[in-house]
Structures are given as C-alpha cells and as structure tokens.
Amino acid sequence: MDPLVSLAFVAGATSRIRLGTSVLIMPYYTPIMLAKQLATLDVLSRGRLDVGLGVGWSMDEYEAVGVPYKARGRRADEFLRCLKTIWTQDPVEFSGEFYRVPRSRVEPKPVQRPHPPITIGGYGPAVIQRAVACDGFNGGNVPLQQVAPLVTEIKAAAEKEGRDPAALQIVSRGSVQLHASPQGKERRPLWGTLDEIREDVGRYAAAGLTELFLEANFDPRGVTLERALEVMEALAPGG
C-alpha cells in the first residue's frame, strides 16, 4: 500500500506513536508535492512524523516513473536542499539543476521545527554523508555484526562535519520470526522465542542503534495480519 496514504489513516487512529517511512525514494516524487504531503501529515499527527528518504536502486522503477537513473545521487542531494527550503522559508524560492520552485507561499508548514527529522537510507560513503547532513541514518535490516562498525563510521563522519554525533538518529528495520522453542546462540538475530528476541533487541541497542523497528510481516513461513498483530502485541512492553 502507498505509505503516505497508510500513515494518514494511522495518524487519525492513534495519538502517541511516532509515524515514519523507511524509506521514500526521493526521485519518484517532486519536492513541492512531497513537502506538502509530509507537512500535512505532520500537522494532522500533531508533530509525530519521522521522514526516511533514499536514492533508490531499481532501474526498472526509475523507468516506470519517468526519471533518469543517471545522476541519481546528485538529484537526491538537490531534492533534499529543495525540500528543506520549502519547509523553512516563507516565501519559498529555489532554483537548481533538477528542481525549481518560483517565488511562492507553500502551506502548511510542518509542526516540528525546523522540519520533521530526516533520516537517510542506503549504503556507502555518500549515504553516510547525506545522513550526517540531515538527522541520521535509516537502514534496512542491518545485520547485527555490522551495526557497531556502521555506528562508528557515522559518528566519525559527524565529528568531521562539526555535528554532534549524539544528536543523530541511527535507525534500522529488523525482521522478526517468533518461535515457540528456543533457537539457541547461533540463531539469526530476532528469530527465536520472545525472550530471545528481547535479548537481541538489547544487543542492537548496545551496538549503538537509537531505534530498531520490528517487521512482523516479513516471515518466509507466511503471516497473516492477525498473526503479525499478535507478535507485535507480545513483544510490546508488558506483553
């Protein structure tokens, strides 16, 4: 399902949880429209939105949305500058290689100032630099053994750029597979009993993640919505 439409539904049905994307592929949108959609979500949720953005890797999807695959990194960097300009300037004016916003008033502005937290997904040095220039990193199922080296790299890049490493978010998704019996020390992290999964969550935190959000719907054995909700409720504090 479309993530922004889904989050709008969730925003109306909740009052406390954070809402976020992991991750929207920037070149599939225009900065002006995405800025308006995300600002609207931030207003409707009373400032509960986190924004995960990425460059994308699928040439087929680029072709489907009519965007050149070439220079996608440069396009994404300009997209980020344009998005922040739309959220923080009034009136707005932006002129770049790929995007242009004539002098305009763009509303609503986000509740969160200067804008909702932006985390960047992907892999490689360029992604680390984008993450440090924004509010942090947003990874897809980062293996546990790679978390500590990644955190070290991000913090070193932040210090080099004069950023406070402690102010950055370092986020990852984690696929969960719940088992009735213990899977042992050699198990895949986050695959096991409730106690084993909780132990693994602590290991991710100790390695330096600031947030690990669990995906109960990615299970090769197959999973129903009802079962996914049961797993989420069981893993919740007090579950």
Structural notes for this entry:
With 239 residues, the protein is an alpha/beta fold. 42% of the residues lie in helices and 18% in strands. It has helices at 3-13, 31-44, 59-65, 72-88, 125-133, 144-160, 194-207, 225-235; strands at residues 19-20, 24-25, 49-54, 92-95, 100-104, 118-121, 136-139, 169-175, 177-178, 191-192, 211-215. The model has no long low-confidence stretch (mean pLDDT 94). The protein folds into two domains: 1-116, Luciferase-like domain (TIM Barrel); 121-239, Luciferase-like domain (TIM Barrel, Alpha-Beta Barrel), CATH 3.20.20.30. The strands form four sheets. Strands 1, 2, 3 and 6 form a four-stranded parallel β-sheet that branches. Strands 7-8-11 form a three-stranded parallel β-sheet. It has a two-stranded antiparallel ribbon with strand order 4-5. The protein is built from eight helices and eleven strands. Helix 1 (3-13) runs parallel beside helix 2 (31-44).
